[in-house]
Amino acid sequence: MNNISTENNNGFDPLDMNNYKIEKLPKRSKSKVESFLAILGGPLAIITFILIYFVLKPDFLQSINADLLGDYARSIFDLKGSAEFSKMNIAMMAIFAAGVILWMTEAIPNYLTSLIIIISLVLTGVLSEKDAYAQLGHKVMWLNIMSFVLASMLVKTGLAKRFALWFIVHFGKKSSSIFLSFLLINVVLSAFISATTAKAAILLPIFMVIAAIYGARGGDKKNNFGRNIVLQNLFYINIGASGFLTGSGANLLAAALITGATGVDIYFTDWMRGNFLVAIILMFLGYIIAVRVFFPLKKEERLPQIPGGMERLKEELGKLGKMDFQEIKSALLFISILALWATDKFHGISPTAVAFIGAIIALTPRIGILKWNDVDIPWHLMLFSAGAYTLGAGFKVTDLPSLSVNAIFDSLGLGLQTPFWVLYLSLTFAMAFSALIFQSKTMRTMIFIPIAIGVAQRFGFDVISLALPVAFLIEHVYMLPFNSKPAALLYETDQYSLTDTFKFGLTMLTVGWIVNIIMGETWYRYLDITPDGIFGIF
């Protein structure tokens, strides 16, 4: 390795991976627009709540037809009575609207917004204390917790770092191969890790060191290499997760909602057959569009700017030495977990239960791999998710999504003879482009999957034909910093601007929607997800 010092005057070594741990990322300064929205968010949320709850009281929520409700909501309607049920729905809409404003403007921390939502649903009588507080124990929450246990095992043993470094050192010989290497790394990690934030935390130090090697230091030293490597990883982290049922808790939640409505189980293999190919196609398209259209590399950006930089990565890999017994155990445990997930159709053990078993083995004294103190669980993210799940519980009790859908379709005069393709285009568009508004993919799942189910039931179509293609769009949460936890985390690297992420993200969102439409007529049709000839294109 060259003896040229890579430290600046402040003693900061841009090639030291320890400098890019999540807890060491500098707090990013808000832009003038972001600061204005943060100031506006609190008062706007309060005014919105007051207007909906006390003044507007939407008409379609004041005279509810019980025949339009789902079974669970109808039982609440019969128990509470029409007047009380209407009041619950108005409160639900007011809390939801105010919560979305707070999440979008980040007027207060996201976890605090979730806590406010939870207690508001209790105080307004939408949910009982038991139902509201129980959401922290939702099975998908447990999957997230167990996934962070398993991800911590990968971090402690160095197995994930070894794999990523080995791949980059052997195949990242030039800028283009570096980007493609991270594409493949994300595909592999997506199969094993059920938390996109955990993937981001594992990969961030590695691609930040590579960004520094190619002269991208963030701030006023941004360049297209830095924009590419961070934004492409953000895209890969999310879209890679879309190829697997266990890719994120939101995927599992969607499958559970569909199963609850149809009685048909959605297995790991079903989801993978349906969307893994789509995920791979989109990831390659994302790579091409990023480097060819939005962030083409100048000649000097294709070459390392720090002499001996790539040697540092080899040195980091060398420090890991040969694989030890703990790493081997970690690898075997993860392969076993993946095998159980992939064969769930045969043994019937849920992905959450499989993750539970894996975490227990990993934590067992003497035969395990890590201790509880080694586990890094971001509880503020767990509280944020709990708020989103509590909103979902409120939607289930009030059936607000279905009531809203019926009101919209009635106002538009769409009868029961509406063609399938109109519904397919409308629902997939709504799910995809809701990322412009909504804070959480979990919340989007809880809103749009029930809507897709309700629309399919209203118009007499198979629930899976609409709900599953909508579910395949859940992971398109990379356009704006508030779209997902990895988006918020990687925005803090300051390697790209809000304009950069918006133009690339909006383009890929549009491409993703178009690919979903094409698959609806071809691949999904071949798999009997969508009916024959839905668009009359092929």
Task: Describe this protein's structure.
- By secondary structure, this protein is an all-alpha fold.
- The chain has a domain of 229 residues.
- It is built from 24 helices and no strands.
- The longest helix has 27 residues.
> Which structural class matches the secondary elements?
mainly alpha
Number of helices: 24
Termini gap: 58 Å
Succession of helices and strands: HHHHHHHHHHHHHHHHHHHHHHHH
Mean pLDDT: 83
- Overall outline: globular
How much helix, percentage-wise, in residues?
55-70%
Describe the sheet with the most strands.
Answer: none
> What is the number of beta strands?
0
Low-pLDDT parts are: 1-6
Q: In percent terms, what proportion of residues is strand? A: under 5%
What Rg do the Cα atoms give? Answer: 24 Å
Keywords:
mainly alpha, globular, 538 residues, disordered N terminus, 0% strand
